[in-house]
Specification:
single chain; mainly alpha; Growth Hormone, Chain: A
Length: about 425
């Protein structure tokens, strides 16, 4: 019994026969969706509280509170490089335990921070730790399911995942109606502990000892070098980073834009959630159309649409000093975010397509590189916010055009190689 409990907690090795699915299918989907959604929740639930946190921690400039979002992504990008190889070497469950321990420590630091610096340190650690859930969730699905069954599982997980950016800001705003921003961190802390205990008790380890690979920093470096040398992989990775830069700029400024510029106050989560629906709808539309038109064509049309619409809207908003009517801004962002929803899945798919057998580590490295590209540019867009939507519109226009140029470079290189 003692050894069986150690095995269940992932603290001892197992035989091939012990690697089984002990949870019901629905329970597995629910647990994996919660794990994957935790990072998104930690971003979106905080948006309504940014101004209050800035006031309590004496942040001089309103734009500086955006770093509470950006620094989380920086830690997340670093973590994506680490947890994939760790879980391949030491098992999925120990890697999750490490990641959640780091995330929980970060949450506690942010919860009790009395200076803005400690808040940012805590948020960085949260992102660093929560990368484990994002990476290892996909690995667990890959361990237990294959082929069309794996596709079905991931689709169900992503369906639940899409609900998070729609509902999380309203949840954060609801908490603020009865308490201050500290209670949001208490909620994140409690949910993290609940997920961790659930995972520890119910999810079995899925990698037998004889299938584990030695942890090697040199191997990570070699694979990273392969990605840098592969022009097609690197090109689509750069495009993912550029597109995500514009989205991160929007995410960083959304609270100020809705609550301060358009004076929506507590209605902010409703408008933010409505725009998040556009991203979710894009994922469903793309699933139907990508088999007919292909990832590259879908990505090209989405980028052209963002570029043209952004240039036109910039010209429309400029005479209004960057403050067009709310309905015009909502129509514009709905179109742009719909295209963003089409782009991210396709660009990641195009980057991953040539990687073959190094798909697991490749996914981690592609995600990390694109995020490292996005964080500084997205932060720059956010820091340029001046109670005007012009920096956001300019960011979408600029980075979509740059992405089209990178795609042109990729296709010319492929044509030359052929």
């Amino acid at each position: 019994m003692f050894r069986r409990n150690l095995y269940r907690w992932g603290l001892t090795d197992m035989t091939e026969q012990q690697t089984t699915k002990t949870m019901a299918f629905g329970e597995f989907i629910a647990l994996m969706a919660l794990m994957m959604s935790l990072m998104a929740l930690c971003i979106d639930i905080m948006l309504p509280a940014l101004a209050q946190i800035g006031n309590d921690l004496n942040v001089a400039e309103a734009n500086d509170t955006q770093l509470i979002i950006s620094i989380l992504f920086l830690g997340f990008a670093l973590g994506m490089v680490i947890y994939g190889p760790l879980s391949d070497s030491y098992g999925r469950k120990p890697a999750i335990y490490l990641g959640f321990a780091i995330a929980i420590v970060g949450c506690v630091i942010s919860l009790f921070s009395d200076t803005y610096l400690w808040m940012l340190i805590g948020r960085f650690l949260q992102g660093l730790g929560l990368a484990s859930a994002r990476i290892i969730t996909v690995a667990l699905v890959r361990d237990l399911y294959h082929g069309n069954e794996m596709g079905k599982v991931m689709s169900l997980i992503m369906t639940i995942f899409i609900l998070v950016p729609i509902l999380a800001p309203s949840l954060g705003q609801g908490i603020l109606l009865f308490a201050n921003w500290h209670m949001i961190f208490w909620f994140i802390l409690a949910l993290s502990l609940l997920i961790l205990v659930w995972f520890a008790l119910r999810q079995v380890e899925t990698i037998p000892a004889h299938k584990r690979k030695p942890f090697s920093l040199s191997q990570i470096g070699q694979n990273l070098l392969l990605i840098f040398k592969h022009r097609e992989v690197m090109g689509y990775t750069i495009m993912s980073g550029l597109v995500f830069s514009a989205f991160l700029g929007y995410l960083n400024t959304s609270q100020q834009m809705f609550q301060s510029q358009y004076h929506l106050g507590k209605l902010f989560p409703i408008y933010f959630g409505a725009l998040a629906i556009a991203v979710g709808c894009a994922s469903m539309v793309n699933a139907k159309l990508v088999m007919r038109f292909g990832m590259r064509t879908m990505s090209t049309y989405a980028l052209i649409t963002i570029s043209v619409v952004s240039i036109i809207f910039f010209a429309v908003a400029l005479p209004e000093h960057g403050q067009p009517p709310l309905w015009q801004m909502m129509v514009y962002l709905s179109i742009v975010l719909f295209c963003f929803g089409i782009l991210m899945g396709n660009l990641n798919g195009l980057a991953m397509e040539p990687l073959g057998k190094m798909a697991g580590l490749g996914a981690s490295l592609v995600g990390a590189i694109s995020t490292f590209i996005a964080v500084p540019f997205g932060t720059l867009i956010g820091q340029s916010y001046n109670n005007s939507i012009l920096p956001i519109v300019f960011g979408f226009a600029l980075f979509s055009i740059l992405s089209l140029l990178v795609m042109r470079w990729i296709t010319l290189k492929v044509s030359t190689a052929l």
